Amino acid sequence: MTHPRIRPLLAMACMLATAASATAAAADRDDGAMLGFSRTAATAQQSLEQRFDAQLDPAELRGWLKQMASQPNQVGSPHDKANAEFMLAKFREWGWDAHIETFSVLYPTPKKVALELLGPNPYTAALHEPAVAGDTTSDLAGVLPPYNVYGADGDVSAPLVYANYGMPDDYKELARRGIDVRGKIVITRYGGGWRGLKPKLAQEHGAIGCLIYSDPRDDGYAQGETYPQGGWRPAQGVQRGSVADMQLYPGDPLTPGIGSTPGAKRLALKDAKTILKIPVLPISYADATPLLQALRGPTAPASWRGALPLTYRVGPSASKVHLTVLSDWSQKPVYDVIAMLKGATAPDQWVVRGNHHDGWTFGAWDPLSGNVTLMAEAKAIGGLVKQGWRPQRTLVYASWDGEEPGLLGSTEWAEAHASELQQKAVLYLNSDTNGRGFLDAGGSHSLQHLVNQAADGVTDPETHVSVRERLRAHMLVDGSSKDAKPEAKAIAKLAAEGGDVPIQALGSGSDYSAFLEHLGIASLNLGFGGEDDDAGIYHSRYDSFDHYARFGDPDFGYGVALAKVAGHIMLRTADAEVLPLRFGDFSDTLDRYVGELHKLVDDTRKATEQQHKLLDSHAFALDADPTRPVAAPARDSDMPAIDLAPLDQAAKRLRQSAQAYQAAYARHAAGPDLPAARQQQLNQLIGSMEQTLTDPAGLPGRNWFKHFIYAPGMLTGYGVKTVPGVREAIEARRWDEANHYAALTAKVLDRYRAQLDRLTMLLDKQS
Amino acid sequence: MTHPRIRPLLAMACMLATAASATAAAADRDDGAMLGFSRTAATAQQSLEQRFDAQLDPAELRGWLKQMASQPNQVGSPHDKANAEFMLAKFREWGWDAHIETFSVLYPTPKKVALELLGPNPYTAALHEPAVAGDTTSDLAGVLPPYNVYGADGDVSAPLVYANYGMPDDYKELARRGIDVRGKIVITRYGGGWRGLKPKLAQEHGAIGCLIYSDPRDDGYAQGETYPQGGWRPAQGVQRGSVADMQLYPGDPLTPGIGSTPGAKRLALKDAKTILKIPVLPISYADATPLLQALRGPTAPASWRGALPLTYRVGPSASKVHLTVLSDWSQKPVYDVIAMLKGATAPDQWVVRGNHHDGWTFGAWDPLSGNVTLMAEAKAIGGLVKQGWRPQRTLVYASWDGEEPGLLGSTEWAEAHASELQQKAVLYLNSDTNGRGFLDAGGSHSLQHLVNQAADGVTDPETHVSVRERLRAHMLVDGSSKDAKPEAKAIAKLAAEGGDVPIQALGSGSDYSAFLEHLGIASLNLGFGGEDDDAGIYHSRYDSFDHYARFGDPDFGYGVALAKVAGHIMLRTADAEVLPLRFGDFSDTLDRYVGELHKLVDDTRKATEQQHKLLDSHAFALDADPTRPVAAPARDSDMPAIDLAPLDQAAKRLRQSAQAYQAAYARHAAGPDLPAARQQQLNQLIGSMEQTLTDPAGLPGRNWFKHFIYAPGMLTGYGVKTVPGVREAIEARRWDEANHYAALTAKVLDRYRAQLDRLTMLLDKQS
């Protein structure tokens, strides 16, 4: 489900200028030794990793991908179940204790979708993705027609309004042009923010239906040759996808917070808050063009214009558009494949790995390119076991079902096993789509050094430097371009310090959400990308083996590279004497986030003052062209003092505690091993550190989300908001809430610090 | 010729952050009194202006425009001559001493132009602008086929390469993609820099031909509905224009520096440095589309992509393109209409006003919309004379011919009368295209306060505030948008100070060049625009009365507004007791420019260091996608110390002298009148102040340009470069030249300061 092309940008939103000094500090901390291992153990671990690597065979990844992408594999399809059973057999063959865990979820599927333009120049949308030459699966039956799951049923006719990306600022621009979407059908284009926000915001503004089309500027011919000549989206290609309000909670809309087991108590459909009230339909630009041509009214703002050969207007259209969406709202099964390898000395510490196996059509890119790397890891680990190795901690490899509609398989499993996971899970490592390019690593920042050490030990297939150094080069070049965004410049500055490269904070968009944001388990999301052309077929019928083999990772070199980076992290976490987390990196990152919040407050205040000045001087009215009237913006609320002092102090205290832990860890590393009992106690506490960043009260208006540092943005969807309670309150100008959550978040950080101090004591205590 | 839509941007390039304090200083200087007048004289002047305004009749402007745009009026056309004679008769009828001054200039006109794509999918370009419904002149004969005057004759066949806007950075991007244009035909799109630079740079890079097309993103359907439904460029519309190398010298290519009178010594054609050596042709996007579709090679960088429904590639094309341009290189006559009104007390001080009358086709927008305001002023002034008024100084009203091919009429006249003009001319006020919107004022900054006072006294037809306050609102809103450029923010900051709004520095693009940049006469360029749609028909067959009456200035309210602003400035300059220049405004502006140069040096040094770091770490190579290789950029030269201290000191001395003059002027204004002789001596010196900013040696490589503060950029064309000797040397990394011209410019500024001190003495000397 995750969209590689949009992830980096979103992630960059959590970088800052004060960063450089922080990394310098981190560099000081890095003695080059393998984190969590004594020198002797580290040597053994490296040879283990070499034996692991030796078993990775790109031909096998290719074979599994071709096989699993040979038929449509969306939730409820025969091949989806077949793929689960295929993996079950494989895991068992490789020596894992595996089973399939089934949940029953609400998963509507389209019974009738129709779209037509009425009036003098009527047009009936094809809503069909034709077979294309050379794509051998593109003519197969069993693919669901393009739709957005969890939109409402409806049969509506109304004039059309174009709302650009359909994000909040777009509605402000419409309002300034006197355009009201109440009672209208809104057409938006993909991009600029998460898909699900588009119909949600349209609904909140009073629209009765929503269309989402793929403009060729964003992933079609403007980007490159279209499929099958090139990899980009053809005229009839459509992006399917979920529009459930996953910012409230992901998973089965009827069972928030609990596993959707047979007996589970389910909400009535009408009470499911994550399901839309209006119909929504994704369409191709071939079908969108006649609709856009029917628009009247003001010319669209310059930044709203796509690459279609027409004058983009905001509307409304003179003729009405007629939209019909009817679905089968029955329950469907999802099949999670769970494979375990019991730990020798710490069986009750789990190291969990996941990737989903359900696709929207054939799912070659999304998700199978990532899923086959997980399979390759599992097979190689099985091979190590056959060679006599046993992990110290328990390894759990999971292939989730139902990720596409709303992280269903992973969320229901995590909810069903919540207390056990909070007791046992020390890491969740996720992957999803994978392709050629650069390592894209996000997650808990206490894991940043572990990721860097692993990335430093794996060679990039194209450049033959380490994947970390290639990523560093990418960050440096990205941040150096004349028109680089401040975030890209900040990242480049961090990368230029040498040592560790920053990892991103996680929002949502793949299966880590329940583990990180609901249960507070330290998590990572890894994948390669940036050189591939997946955007053009994302969630369309053309997400096929043939496309992937041409434009994804033709020799599966990046599949193997991901298996190495992820596999090494799993093995090190399984075998480390001291769990390989480094809390100073979290502290450094937190300092940056707090710095960002101060800047956000200052910038918001400046912008507010400026806007008020302009309004008071009637500048907007005087500037406006009377023949193309654009009204002044609505007056922003006045801004009181925002008190971030509690955060400043908590961050400062945490910095001191992190330094103390680091010193104690260094003394320990140089000294004798800890007594087994104390080491176990230590690892127990390290394993639950991330959970202290959660609070049962959760985030404002969405208490499924318990993590106080990382969350998907209410108004960005996949995009992360760090220190969300405070940041989103400021952005939404809810001033009291901002002050309240600054204090609450400080309390949470103090709990983290308190447990960190206990770790330090344990390390220092004389044996 | 000037292009209103691109002018503001260019002008903003000469603003800076240190600006605010400067304006504050200016505000202190402003006692509100009419500059150059005693209180009693000011009252009389205001009533004179009221009587002037009362005679301005929009219906007359409309009538003249319709009449003069009723036939093609390019140089050498019958109607061009007829328009000159029409104005001659009018000026005489209005009581002016008028005559037509004729020059004979080299003006090539096309005999044969042809363009075809060869190979398997051949295409022959139409090169024809069809008649459109409702545009009554669009089917008239006598319009020259679309061409770029002063391109070379040629008949060439070669593969095609796309070079975006054809600016220097674009060639760097091509080189990084391994694309060499030697022996190729280059196709560029209009925009991004002056037209004439495109073939010049193509030629310098070894291309054998150049095409320039209008992409619909820049002035076609992407901007709005096309003509005749809307005002924007239709599919077959073509932008004509000059490609003479006017950065070397404007005017007749065969007579640099002297008037092209019958007996004048002329260069041989081959020795004319401003004429291209390769053929060039402007085409429509209808004709460009098949050529762009024929391109192969790498996908064009994102910022290169226009609004055509295709994948923009850089090429080269598999098939060759065949381009033919053959011209008639004979001499043609240009008819300058010169009307004078002798001054009563200072006949040897001339106040000069000009606008050109030649167009590319019908010239309704460009230039007649400005020319009819000049006529309206002349008629109203004639009316004042009939009422018994006489100007104290001599008024010269000129309507130039041959501006479009290269400022021919104004340049030849200025060169022919150089010494007399340097003795007598105290102001040159230019206008050109005029339309709805905001006052666009550029010129010598010693005239900034005069312009502001005049703009403050004229009401905007749409908003009914003063045109100055509307311009201020525009600057404030422009600079407040999220994605405002730093220059726009700097301007907004200046405007927010209240008091005077900044005027722009002048580069080139209209008839002020010879007066300001060659002779050093204080100059202004005025016009309204920004709400009109002229870009879409600029220099095409559709620059017609019908288009202007719909999309330009339908009720001619802005024609009258321009006549008022320009007329009041002319009348005040003609009658002022002390010529209305304020040197503190120049000093404030110079301080900003010097600040910009310091920033330019710092930024260039930082960028150089960063680029060297990236190259040394092989970051570009590691970042590159091996399947879409982009090589590292060429290594920038190392940067030595740049010594701007001479400029800093000269600017500081000037500031002190300007303050002293200001104080002396204030004492004078409060005290008794100066004795007539001293006043005359004073005005003589004020009138020649701007000339002290010139140096006979001129600018590096182009000594026709004598002004050391304002010049058109060698690599921007119309776009100004302030303190050009220093700024362009730094930008081109010619370090020794930068240091050399910093010292030279300081000397020039000291001459200005020395004469300013003499003014102060004259004001202070006891009578």
TrEMBL record, chains A, B:
Coiled coil feature spans: none
Domain Transferrin receptor-like dimerisation: 642-756
GO-annotated molecular function: hydrolase activity
Pfam families on file: PA (PF02225), Peptidase_M28 (PF04389), TFR_dimer (PF04253)
Domain of life, source organism: Bacteria
Keywords from the UniProt entry: Hydrolase, Signal
Signal sequence extent: 1-26
Peptidase M28 domain boundaries: 337-548
Location of the PA domain: 156-243
Family in the record: Belongs to the peptidase M28 family. M28B subfamily.
Protein name per UniProt: Folate hydrolase
Native species: Rhodanobacter denitrificans
